[in-house]
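Example record

One chain of 275 residues, shown exactly as stored in the release files.
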Amino acid sequence: MRLPFQHRVEAPALRKPAPTTPPQMQRSDLASLYRAARIGGDFFDCVSVGSDRVVFTLLDIAGKREQALGIAAAAQETLRTTAPQLFAAEDLNEADAITDLVLAINQSILAAAGGVRCAPGIVASYNEAIGIVTYVNAGSVPALLRTDGVVTTLETSGLPLGLFSHATHDAQVCVMPDASSLLLTSRGLLEVKAGGEEYGIERLKESLRKARESSAHDLCSDVLAAVGEFIEQNKRRFLRFGNGGQGNGESLGENDVTTVALLRCSARVGAATAT
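Predicted structure tokens for this chain:
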């Protein structure tokens, strides 16, 4: 019971990022899929800049989701306000623009967190007209490119975001020819365990090789289905040896798992909506 002089103190509203809808493009398809408990700080967002460029980011913000939501909202605001400014210049240097954008997002993470908050992530610009992705992979986020059935890794460009206020990262460039696919995932996917064994990067590469090319959404779905099959196979193996199928982490529900796919096609496809 409150006394007459006591007043109800309203809890501050929890700041959340706005929903993300990938843009329609002429020859490309972009989609994201989330699975599992969503208890962590996985965050994906994208913004169209002009008629043939999309700038996007995938962040894995440390801490519980309630703590990470406000940081993700700050990063989203920076992406959506700063990217159009940086990429609007007539004499645009995409590598410089991405480097400056990463610095701005990094500072927004530190400010929203009120200090250090580790946030591995990828920030990238896709120029559809020429099929070029200019990117910074800050903190070894899983990023794979499939071209003619060959899968290569987009290597790390520097330390995770959210650690040092003036950290700089060198932008890298990759070419996406027709019928190529770019896959980004959160580290939670690699760390999914079944029978004490992690899914790992090699299984992720194999799942990308086998994934459908019909749409970005289908590719994300196939990759997540492969993780689910990995878990089920290990459960059956444990049952066969009388272990009862119990193992540490044998559930996608114990991991924040995010996939993002970008497909470059020879004909126009419909863009899928992130779910």
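Notes: The chain has a mean pLDDT of 85.
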